[in-house]
Amino acid sequence: MSNAITQRNGVFADGAFTRPAAGAELTGSILVVGGSTAAYTTTLTALRLNLDVCLVQPHKVVGGQFTAQALPASDDGDLLQARAGLYTVDGEEFAISKAQRAFRDRQRELQPVGGKKVPNPGGGWVSPLATTPVVAATAMNEALLPYLRDGRLTLIPFAEPVQVAIEGGNGRSRVQGAIFRDTQAGHTFTVRAKVTVEATDLGDLLEVGNIPSRVGQEARHETGEAILPEDARPQCQQSITFDVVVEHTARGKGVAIGKPSGFETEGWIGLKEFTHLFWTKAKPDKWQKWDFFSDFGIFRYRRLFRSHPHDKKVLPGDVAVLNWGTSSEPDRAFCCGNDYRPGRLVGVSRDERKLHIQRARQRAQAYVHYLQTHGAADLKPRGDLTWTSDGIALEPYIREARRGIALTTIRHEDVAETFFPDQARARCFDDSVGIGQYHYLDLHGNDAKGHVSPRGKDVVALPFSLPLGSLVPRDTDGLVLSAKSIGTTHITNAAYRMHPMEWAIGEASGFLAVFSVWTGLEPRVLATEEKHIRKIQGFMARNGIPIFWFNDISHDDPDFEAIQVLAAAAIVRSEDPRSLSFKPYAPVNRAVVATALVNVLKLPTTLPDKPTFSDVLPGQHWAYIPIETLHAHGMIAGVGQNRFAPNAPITREQLSFLVKRAMPEVYDKAFGRTPIDRQNLQRRELSRVMYEVFKGRLQL
195 with 513: CB under 8 angstroms? Predict the structure, then answer.
């Protein structure tokens, strides 16, 4: 089979797929269930770490929202976007992993503009990187090809989970794999694995396995989010959207998509539901209207392909994906595109789900029909880019899933700006295994009554982190949560669901699953013991994955691992919490070193009845406690007249004395790349040295 695996138009040839017979049973190291973006990145991560993976998904196309859902226009937070002069380095060097950056770069190479590689091939005005779904799928497939050829990847399409293989014992249950139904042939087969990853787009593995989970908007007592009402409202979910890829043709060359049944007679696809205009407020009392093909119209909103290097002007031959919710049009509350709001897909029967999927697809068709009959006749559906006949995506764009009840639940209070005044970051979880940022909690509510919609600073999301505990079910072993099934809430999922973050979630899930196989330990154990957490964090950082927000430390930096892990562990972070910068070459004062050393060593606090140093008073808690603690353990002394000079710079030599006293067994390694002299110590050097002390204490 190795010589027969090829791809065309972003889809693998049939020889790449495994189609188990009725009653067949497969076994392997890691089972990944789902066709999401996170399912893909979990799979790729585990393969690159030399484990075998079985990926079971609903279609032939890998990649989820980039491909089968036809939205390869990445929803990037503003910090990921490179802006000359505003940030020290390109956002792609610090906000995403090396692997994700390579994927984005490969997309740019596969879709040049005017014969040149450009930052944003599509040139849309909302997404800083967009290509066609076929280009995204091709870039993803290329990375998987070696593993299909050597047999480490078993790729099973057209299958859905119907049962989870679970065994009980000692009051806990353990997942051993899953039973699937072949959606084309109708029979079932089983895949067993050491670790199973739930990476479906709707959390279906949790449902069929009866694994504790939550649906829709939770109650206040369930999550502790103050903004929520007392009662749970599972019917309040985010809407779905069937994306449509269309081309702007020459005049008179448009191809009609056709009118769906129910158009103008069913309320949810009536004329009042649609518009071809986009409106912005130029002044408090003045609106600006943008026509469909204008520079800031709906077509260029998520343009995927441009036929000319000009980045704004829309020309015949350009291709866009229609993914349009509300227009902010004056006097129209809810309209105006292909978002489908009347129903929900999670927590309902499969028949009801199928009905809403069918209706959502009809709405997408109705929207294109409306456009073609209201000023945008020159549109042609591009089914060759969506693997369908009409340019409508293979499956709906999913914004929300059934969520597992995890060891850690990421709450509104962990993400929104309201709760972090005068700070640059949201909560920095000390077990962080990833970072993300989307500038607000983007909730596309369905039509159910009772939605809580944050406003003002309650809706602004600061840069956030991904806790390892959010990937681990509270009551179930052998299972890792991924995609949109992690321990977020209805509210926080609205920021964690975006393309770059879902990629990061998949990578973290992959590392956790791999470590579980390598060590033979349950994900729960790995996520609750510091030694294992730090080992996972260090290994991820070593592989170019950021776990703490700094805008001046590239994943190519030689001290990236040390800086990232110590920051996650709350040992050495930014000097100013209002800044995202690490400032690697800035000098370090004595108080900062004392604090870092106490935290690294976890020294018990021993405070004297009276202050030891005249210049470090008890009111200065940030410096007083660690300095007095080091003095009590015989590690520091005054500098004359009973003074410590906490704000004075410390030299490399002075730090070396402290390390030699604290942990002589790591002394040589700690200063392997740092000279011992009387030059002022730099912040990067502090992290570099302290990281070796840190690993020494944990025996890593």
Answer: yes
Contact at 8 Å (CB) between 514 and 193? no
Angstrom distances, CA of residue 118 to CA of 78, 294, 304, 398: 19, 22, 13, 29
CA 283 to chain centre: 35
Residue whose token pair is 């066609």: 132
d(CA 491, CA 232): 13
Residue given tokens 């840190």 in the structure block: 694
Of the candidates 220, 322, 224, 307, the residue with the CA atom closest to the CA atom of residue 274? 322
How far is 315 from 266, CA to CA, in rounded Å?
34
CB 335 within 8 A of CB 271: no
The reported pLDDT for the residue numbered 86 is: 44
pTM: 0.96
- Rounded-to-integer distance, Cα 36 and Cα 498, Å: 12
Considering just the CA atoms, what is the radius of gyration of the chain in Å? 27
Contact, 364 vs 391, CB < 8 A? Answer: no
Helical (H) or strand (E) element with 684: helix 683-698
pLDDT at position 277, please?
Answer: 84
What would the two tokens of residue 237 be?
A: 């979910």
Calpha distance 326→336 (Å, rounded): 5
CA distances from 128 to 73, 125, 514 (A): 8, 7, 33
What is the maximum span of the chain, computed from C-alpha positions, in angstroms?
Answer: 90
- Tokens at 76, concatenated: 């990037």
| CA proximity to 600, closest of 698, 528, 682 | 698
Directed axis angle between helix 652-662 and helix 590-601, to 10°? 20
pLDDT in tens, 295-320: 889 999 999 999 988 778 999 999 99
Token duo for residue 361 = 């697809």
Q: What's the rounded Cα separation, in Å, for the pair 151 and 320?
A: 37
Return the amino acid letter for 204: D
The span from the CA of 555 to the CA of 543, in Å, is: 8
Among 467, 418, 424, 471, residue whose Cα is nearest residue 441: 418
Question: Residue 223 in contact with residue 408, Cβ under 8 Å?
Answer: no
CB-CB contact of 421 with 427 (8 Å):
no
Among candidate residues 245, 269, 183, 249, the one with its CA nearest the CA of residue 389? 245
Q: Residue 103 is which amino acid?
A: F
Q: Which residue has the tokens 């997309």?
A: 107
Q: How far apart are CA 311 and CA 295, in angstroms?
A: 9
- If we measure between CA atoms, which residue out of 256, 13, 249 comes closest to residue 144? 13
Specify burial of residue 281 (Cβ count, 10 A radius: 0-12, 13-18, 19+): exposed
Q: What's the first-to-final CA gap in the chain, in angstroms?
A: 42
Residue 495 CA to residue 36 CA, distance in Å, equals 17
CA dist 529 and 534 (Å) reads: 9
- List the chain residues with pLDDT less than 50: 1-2, 83-88
**Are the beta carbons of 393 and 68 closer than 8 angstroms?**
yes
Helices 683-698 and 652-662: crossing angle in degrees, nearest 10, is 10
Here the tokens at position 240 are 């779905």
Of 347, 615, 675, 366, give the one whose Cα is nearest residue 490.
Answer: 347
Residue 268: per-residue pLDDT: 83
Alpha carbon 183 to its chain's center: 29
Residue 449 to residue 272: CA distance in whole angstroms = 21
C-beta separation of 442 from 126 below 8 A: no
Other beta carbons within 10 angstroms of residue 355's beta carbon come to 13
